[in-house]
Amino acid sequence: MTTAQPRPAIAATGLRKSYGDKPVLKGLDLNVREGTVFSLLGANGAGKTTTVKILSTLIRADSGDVRVAGHDLAHEPDAVRAAIGVTGQFSAVDNLLTGEENLLLMADLHHLPRDDARRRTGQLLEQFDLVEAGRKPAATYSGGMRRRLDLAMSLVGSPRLIFLDEPTTGLDPRSRRNMWQIVRDLVAGGVTVFLTTQYLEEADELSDRIAVLEGGRVVAEGTADELKRRIPGGHVRLRFGDHRHLDAAMRVLDQPSRDNDPLALRVPGSGSLRSLKHLIGRLDDHRIEVEELSVHTPDLDDVFLALTGKPATENEKATTR
Ligand code: ATP
């Protein structure tokens, strides 16, 4: 028996885009399942915003086949636009209007009848914790409130697919967590989220699947766990009280290597209970005393470094644009 595959929310093959003679996307393939969070992870200038702009009809690709929300991007851009919401680096918030007026204006653009517009605006102000702020001009909002309003505005038309371009860049940790909860709630309500981020932690927290964009191509794709498994680097770190125990451990353990700390060693391994039991048994058999033991499993930082040759921190931006 075959089970029907759900329709992909986004299916792109061979997406290419150059600015002048500078190629930015060199044949991107993407597949995003409905009802999931898909993260496009990449350094500054990797082409994340360009991808979002293409998928959301703001600019045209040079070539490639793309279907978004079941519609052909090149031939049915209006149908795509009607099915999606976009928010991110090109904020649609009008500073002179209040939060509520911004939402009502959006409702007007979506041709919602007046009563529906009021109802939807009230719902969104409530959902995004902006009821009180909704009466004040957006110019007075904090970065976190502005992001929430921007996202609320992209939801006025009840899209089933939303694009979030670096939704938490520049936000403080609390506002960031707030935004993550909003994304989770949207997905729980059946919305598909296409997210771009430079934050590994964010991709790890939210995504069903992650694609790493580098050099105009997707260089790796999978769940956070799948990506982590592809990267060697898991080890157990042992710290000893003196050199006598360390030297003894060097002789009896499998493939030990030195650590920056002269009294510590690293032993390759996954850190599974079974391998730890084996390791501790071996140390006990030889009466080797260990002062500290810690397990290091590769994280997305290791993945990013291995795939792009750059540490993630270099890519993290401190300010909002
Ligand atoms: P960031 O994290 O810094 O926002 P990004 O991954 O979103 O980066 P893009 O904004 O898509 O990257 O830019 C990709 C490359 O294309 C960059 O080198 C950028 O300078 C260039 N680029 C983007 N827009 C234009 C444009 N309109 N004209 C010329 N070059 C552009």
Automatic annotation (TrEMBL):
Residues 10-240 form the ABC transporter domain. Its main location: membrane. SMART domains: AAA. The keyword Repressor does not apply. One of its GO terms (molecular function) is ATP hydrolysis activity. It is found in: Cell membrane. Keywords: Antibiotic resistance, ATP-binding, Cell membrane, Membrane, Nucleotide-binding, Translocase, Transport. GO terms for cellular component: plasma membrane. It holds the Pfam family ABC_tran. One of its GO terms (biological process) is response to antibiotic. Coiled coil: none annotated. It is a peripheral membrane protein. Belongs to the ABC transporter superfamily. Drug exporter-1 (DrugE1) (TC 3.A.1.105) family. This is ATP-binding cassette domain-containing protein. It comes from Streptomonospora mangrovi.
